[in-house]
Structure of B box-type domain-containing protein:
Amino acid sequence: MRKKCELCNCAANLFCDSDQASLCWECDAKVHSANFLVTKHPRILLCHVCQSLTPWHGSGPKFVPTMSLCTDCET
């Protein structure tokens, strides 16, 4: 079963550990551009195959949609 965005129920793309929330690209951009403190929240890209956490980490107000694989799906 695919993880859903905590805010809009679309497919989740990122996980924010600080908020303990899975978010889609659009909701992530809205939430993490609200102020300078939430802009600093590190987020982890979810694997586009199995939706596990990937090695990809980033922070900032908005990410360009991208895809990544977890270490299990890479092999």
In short: The beta strands are 14-16, 21-23, 43-46, 53-58. The CA atoms of residues 49 and 65 lie 15 Å apart. The mean pLDDT is 94.
